[in-house]
Design goal:
Radius of gyration: 22 Å
Largest sheet: 7 strands, mixed
Distance between the termini: 29 Å
Number of strands: 19
Oligomer: single chain
Structural class: alpha/beta
Strand order of the largest sheet: 4-7-1-10-13-2-14
């Protein structure tokens, strides 16, 4: 199919893509009993609200995490209101799987959800998701923006919400030159175009969209600005419904999931946020080589970046291009920070903050040229370490921080305990631990490692064990035909993962393998289903 023929399909495809958020529904389980004494409650005994803020591709490139270049005053303010987890990790560094980890409290290695294209209800039709758990306890639950990953063959989960999800764009351009007014590769994937149009050519026959744009426009010109406005309007309405003087006074406590797309590519944000930074003063990657002694397949290839122009699809990356990408990432962080600030400001203006638990979570990290990698999709530190903030009035001390290792799967049981709900029981695997003891006492320890994973197309899955000092990656063959391959890193002596120590530190390797052995062999449930 020629490009001019593809272009003629664009308008029809865009119209059908509006339906892409629809997915199979499921019947919620019977309502479980609610524990009578939540960890956080208002003076009149009402249940706390939940505000869950999800940010796509956000690594801890934030002032509150010590990044001296980042301009992130609103997220920094949020950190000062609660507790910051300094060693928090996603369970898999890819959007779809990471969001399933969050919503199910199930690690990818327990469910087999490693890649796009499998809906979790195909494997666990009666799964009780995080928002469903709150709905079963009498909450109103709603979502907006990027919450579940919609795209690449995956859709929303209608059963998770009291009202329909408010979808927003992830891949978005307003400058005509960014796309040439044609449907681009990433738009096709995020709009689930292949679910609606059969026989489309290979993705590389479609044009690439720009890696970023910087028009002089207002924040609402892009989706994240509109998501913030929608969140504000919804909080106002829910507040009004709960107030006897303005509404029925019978409003339910709310669980609101607000998902922001930036700093996910493309770096399409207003010019003012690009202007906050001097690209020449932002740091270039410190170490751009593969770790010595690591298997070649462990390091991320060009992948996602190759779908954006003018990033080279192969060959060397110029210093100017590196600086542009890094500049765009930081500009996007500042843009999303401003939108989060608007939501938090309104929460406070409505006087809901004293009885609202706020969580800020990045779905995974992001490579900015380290190991020669860009984006995510591997088991290294920069792809897996995430910002992880809890604001729980009366429970977490404002401005506190902890070195407790935490995982995405921990959010579900932590929120349940804070709200006085029963601990989640499935029927899906429940891998998370409640972090409430750590919120009360940041020196408390409830686990000695974090566990995450990433698969490769050579039939191997990397089981990653991160302790406070070390990371082990054990690459196991899913068919059991080949011996494991190991990576081992010491972050006290090698923060940028220059050398794989697996062969030179056999005793340490043995200790770390013993930790990995505490976990079951990675599941193939979803893979076998497909």
């Amino acid at each position: 199919m020629k490009i001019f023929e593809i272009k003629r399909l664009t308008q029809a495809i865009a119209a059908v893509a509006l339906a892409a958020g629809v997915c199979m529904s499921a019947t919620a389980k019977d309502k479980p009993p609610v524990v009578s004494s939540p960890a956080l409650s208002s003076s009149n005994g009402s249940k706390p609200n939940i505000l869950l803020i999800l940010v796509d591709d956000l690594k801890p490139a934030l002032g509150s995490y010590g990044d001296e270049h980042a301009i992130s005053p609103n997220i920094d303010r949020l950190a000062s209101m609660g507790i910051r987890f300094d060693l928090a990790y996603c369970n898999q560094a890819v959007c779809m799987a990471s969001r399933y980890n969050l919503m199910l409290s199930s690690r990818s290695t327990s469910t087999g959800f490693y890649s796009f294209g499998t809906e979790f209800r195909e494997i666990y039709p009666d799964a009780v998701t995080l928002p469903q758990h709150f709905m079963n306890a009498g909450y109103h639950a709603e979502s907006m923006g990027k919450v579940y990953h919609i795209g690449h063959g995956n859709t929303n989960d209608d059963a998770s919400w009291s009202i329909p999800h408010r979808k927003a764009k992830v891949i978005e351009y307003i400058v005509p030159e960014s796309t040439g007014r044609q449907l681009t590769r990433e738009e096709i994937m995020f709009q689930n175009t292949r679910m609606h149009f059969q026989g489309l050519p290979p993705i590389r026959e479609f044009p690439r969209g720009a890696i970023g744009e910087a028009p002089d426009v207002t924040d609402e010109a892009y989706a994240d600005g509109r998501v913030a406005i929608h969140a504000i309007n919804r909080m106002r309405k829910l507040k009004k419904e709960s107030d006897p003087s303005t509404g029925s006074g019978q409003g339910k406590p709310f669980f609101m999931a607000v998902g922001f797309a930036r700093p996910h590519l493309p770096f399409s944000v207003p010019k003012m946020y690009w202007d906050m930074y001097d690209a020449d003063k932002l740091p270039l990657p410190e170490f751009e080589e593969h770790p010595e002694g690591a298997p070649a397949f462990a390091v991320k290839g060009r992948g996602e970046m190759a779908n954006y122009k003018p990033f080279p699809e192969e060959g060397p990356v110029s210093e100017d291009m590196k600086r542009y990408v890094i500049h765009g990432y930081y500009a996007s962080v500042s843009y999303v920070d401003a939108q989060i600030g608007r939501v938090i400001d309104e929460l406070e203006r409505l006087e809901l903050d004293d009885n609202t638990i706020v969580v800020l979570w990045g779905d995974h990290g992001w490579h900015l040229g380290d190991h020669g990698s860009w984006t995510k999709h591997d088991n290294y530190e920069q792809a897996n370490r995430i910002p992880f903030l809890f604001v729980a009035p009366g429970v977490a001390k404002p401005g506190s921080s902890t070195k407790q290792l935490a995982e995405t799967v921990d959010i579900y049981p932590t929120l349940a305990e804070l709200a006085g709900l029963p601990a989640p029981k499935g029927p899906q695997p429940i891998d998370g631990l409640s972090l409430v003891p750590v919120l009360r006492d940041p020196k408390k320890r409830i686990r000695d490692h974090a566990y995450h994973t990433f698969p490769r197309n050579n039939n191997r899955v990397g089981q990653a064990i991160r302790t406070e000092r070390y990371r082990l990656v054990r690459w196991v063959d899913m068919e059991g035909e080949q011996e494991p391959i190991y990576e081992l890193y010491d972050y006290k002596t090698d923060q940028v993962e220059k050398v794989n120590l697996a062969e030179s530190k056999p005793e340490l390797l043995k200790q770390m393998v013993a930790i990995a052995d505490r976990h079951p062999f990675p599941s193939q449930n979803a893979r076998n289903k497909k």
